[in-house]
Every structure is written in structure tokens, then in C-alpha cells.
Amino acid sequence: MASDWFDNLGRPQFVVAPMVDASELAWRLLCRNHAAQLCYTPMLHSYIFTKDAKYRKEYFTTSSNDRPLIVQFCGNDPDVMAAAAKLVEKDCDAIDINLGCPQSIAKRGRYGAFLQDDWSLLQKIVTAMSQAVTVPITCKVRVFDSIDKSIEYALMLQNAGCKLLTVHGRTREQKGPLTGIANWEHIKAVRKAVSIPMFANGNIQCLEDVYRCINFTGVDGVMSAEGILTNPALFEGINPVTWEIAMEYLDLVEKYPCPSSFIRGHLFKIFHKIFTLEGNNEDRELLATAQNLNDFKQVCIRIRHKYLPFHEGRIHFQDDGMTRCGFDLILPPWICQPYVRISPDEHTQKMELCKQQDNAKRIIEDPDGIHISRKKMKKLRRYLRRPTKPDAVTNRKRDICTNDVCPNPCGIKCAYQLCKKCCRNKCFNEDCFCEGHDCRMYKREKVKENKDNT
Description:
Pfam families: Dus (PF01207). The protein is α/β, with parallel strands linked by helices.
């Protein structure tokens, strides 16, 4: 079933997924050191990749020990995708088309999983890229709700020239807190229908899951994304100590530099269980504000210093969250372990409860039990914030300038009960003085002084 090119890759079973800002060269080499057999680059935007040399240099890096390697592109223009593929064909073993990204940015850019309804465009993209380069073109997709449509979709891509298919067993809508469980039944059905090599993606948290997926679906290999981020040694079948695997990664970063945001993201994933403990808030803050490699290493050193005595058994570690459930042993927090999300149903119930509690806080009644609207309550609060005004200020609108032809309010302290303008004119014309308005006859006095001097 597999083609010659796939045999030349060694028929890999353990595959590191393409991950934006996460599957950079240092991380790929770390995973290869721990049994990964094939790695994908992060998703690269085809249009930017063809136009911006700086983007190519920063986001596409590889080395002689970074093989086999598949480069992934996103985009919706067949010619641009083909041009991008030509720029990397000599540095990789295959080129992948991202048809599985479900994020909102993919929707705005019209790529990833938001192309799965435009089959004619996808055929053009796969065909154009296949004709432009000598390496195979592969696709990473998500399933539809219907198994039959998922099969038809896969066969369309195969007929267009796709040489390897990676099927993520979730739909486009399954993302974030609504991710849920990947459907291996869909993957199994697609595997039976296509004749090209195929990888499965979804529900992989340990090495046992890899073999269970292969046996159930019949795929050639299994791809891991979230699982490999929390445990880079997943394919090796071990759960390493967090600070040891983190320091190994930082040593690779020192040799193959990458942006600090990538490093920070990886360390947060590796230490995710430790950072759930309140006693580690300071270390978490230090990682969040780290700016260079030494800062990141300092975080690892601090965590090692704190938990090494527990790991070596010199001090007993007691945590209320570490309990046995049947034969399942909960790992201590300093050991790499998968991140387990709550189910979509639990998330929905949690959001509904939060909404009800929020609405309950907003319901306010007056002493008679009558509901006060939010708009009226806002006015009441604004009124209560105002200081009580003295009577003089309150009655200001009732006192009008005594000049019959002037409609303006008079000054509160004006000796003549005039507005400022009328008071100034009176003081100028009659050589008088108003203490309230502080109106003086500077101009008249100056004129008199000038006359006397002459």
C-alpha cells in the first residue's frame, strides 16, 4: 500500500505534528532524541514565504540531522502554493498542505479547515504543487460529521495527487474547550478507503495510545501534537522529570536559537502540572517575564531545587490531588504528564452555571421588592457618587443678573447681583469695586495716570 518514497523514509510510525510557534528546529531535534521518526515544520504562510526573505530565514530552519522532514504550508492560491513549495523542495522529504487548522485566523485568511468545502480549489492546489516539485505532496485534514463525506473527501485528495494523508479525527468545530474526543471510527473508515499511506491524529497521550490507535484504525503511523508538547519523550514510552527534559531543550536552543516566545510556550507546557500549585506562583511569574536563555534556565534550576528532594525520596510529598483511581497511579507534578481537558458537556455546564451566577449578581431590588433595571441602577450609582451640593450652588439657577436686559445667572458672591460681564462693565464705568468678581478699574486708573503725567 505504501509507495517507494514512504519506504525510503523508513515507514515512520512516530510523527511530530506541525505546530505554529512550537515545532521549531530545537524542539524537533529534542523529539528525535526521544524516538520521534518523522517531524513536520510549523505551518508556514505560503504568500509571506514567497515574498519575505526575512520570514523564510526566521521561520524555516533545518539542519543535516533534521531528517526526514515534511514542510507544511497554508494558503488558497495554487500558483503561490506551488512557488512556495519550490523554495523548500531541496531541504525536505515532502511538502504538506494544511487543511486542518480550525482557528479564527484561518477563517479570516481562508485557509486550513475552511477550505474543506471548496473541493475544486483543493484539487487545483494539490495538482499545481505536485507538478511544480519533485517531492511528494501530502495533506493534513479534519473529518466531516458524516463518515461517507469524510471518505469522499479523502478520495478526492488522493485522486488529485496527494501521496500521504493525515486525518485528524475531529471536526472543524471541535476546538478549544469544545475539543472533545477524536473519532477513530472516521479514521478507520478513511484508512480502508484510500490506498496511499496515512497517519492518524487525535487522542494520543502516551505510547500505549499510539499502538492502540494503529491496531484499531490500521494506519501507517500516528501523529501527536498536544501530547508531545507536554511530554517530548512520549514516543520513547517514558515520563521524564520536567526540569531534565527542559534543560535538554534549552541546550538545543542555545545551539539552534529561536524566539523567546517559543521557549516560554514550551516550558509552560512541560511545567503545566507544577504551575497549578499555588506555591509555584513566583516561578510561574518568573517564566512569564523571562527575556533570555539564562532566565529560562533559572526557572528550571529553581524548580529542580524545590522538587529534587521529593523526587529522590528524601522528603515525602503530600498532595491532596494525588490519589489512586483503581489501578491508575497519578503522577507527581514534577513528572511530564498529559494535559487533560474537561469534556465539552462539562464545559457547557460550567459556563451555564457561571452565567446564572453572574445574572443573579446583577438582579437588584428596591426595599419594596421591585426589580431595578440595570439602566436605572447605573443612574442611581452615578447620583450617589456626587457630593451633596450646598444651597448656594443649588439655588444658582434661580438668581438672574439684575441687569434687566441680561438673561445670565448672577455671580454667587457678586456685591451687585450681576453676572461677570455686567459687573465688569459697571465697575469700569462707575469707578466701583466688586470683591466677588474681583473687578478693578485697571484700565481707567491707567488712563487717569497717563493724563496726569501729561
